[in-house]
Amino acid sequence: MQEEQLKAWRKSERSRLIAARVALSAPELERLRLRMDAHLQRAFPGLATARLALCWPIKGEYDARHLARTLRERGALTALPVVVAAKQPLLFREWHPGTELAKGPLDIPYPVNSPAVVPNAVLLPMNGWDQAGYRLGYGGGFFDRTLASLAKKPAVIGVTYELAKMDTIHPQSWDIPVDWVVTERGVYRRDGGKLAFLGEPPAGEPSKLASPVCYADEIAPGYFGEHQK
To answer: Looking at residue 1, what is its pLDDT?
Structure first.
């Protein structure tokens, strides 16, 4: 597939998958979020002490802010990405309720005065994902560029829905696969260049996956401490 054809195809697939996600009802998004929160807590207990980067949810994405709140209570430090400039790696700044926020591209809030953070784990939303662990994002290449720039790659956990699964995104040389994928179904691990489904982590049992490491419109304003600048 030629470059322009690939761009057009990815744009079409992105629009299709976002539309399918946005069509989910608020109660259904909440049900899926709770399942994904449970999978993440059981499979990755190391997140409780991680320097964890997450994304402010848009367009029905998995809302990691609820889990982040729980993880901070257990000792994690949480951060949000900041767009510095086009075609430049992202910066991460510490975030918790009360942190001053401004609006960036796509009206996504970002911290403005908090300390910079180098994450050792990332919860990364995905518009689409394929059987090799590659992610279909928004087309800006920010996360691929950022991961490539870090001296030590963090553990990258893609978080998304089963409905977003694709045969392939036709990955290019600059595309960087995630290490794990977590959906409402359970946990996948990238092994040998493809994803292997590991199942749903059993409740109440230690996980063998221990890592080293929204319907936001329905939530009352200020719940997550978002004071816009």
So the answer is: 79
What would the DSSP string read from start to end of 73-142?
HTT-EEEEEE--STTS--EEEE--TT-EEEE-GGG-EEESSSPB---SEEEEE-SEEETTS-EE--SS-H
Q: Confirm if 18 and 182 have CB atoms less than 8 A apart.
A: no
Of all residues in the chain, the percent with pLDDT exceeding 90 is 79
Q: Break the chain into its structural domains and give their ranges.
A: 3-217
Region 177-193 average pLDDT = 96
Distance CA 130, CA 133 (A): 5
Do residues 109 and 146 touch, judged by C-beta distance below 8 A?
Answer: no
Q: What is the pLDDT of residue 105?
A: 84
How far does CA 95 lie from the centroid of its chain? 15
3-217: CATH homologous superfamily? NagB/RpiA/CoA transferase-like (3.40.50.10420)
Show the tokens assigned to 184.
């409402």
Other Cβ atoms less than 10 A from the Cβ of 206: the count is 10
Pair type for strands 180-182 and 77-82: unpaired
Mode of pairing for the β-strands spanning 155-159 and 100-103: unpaired
- What's the pLDDT at 200? 75
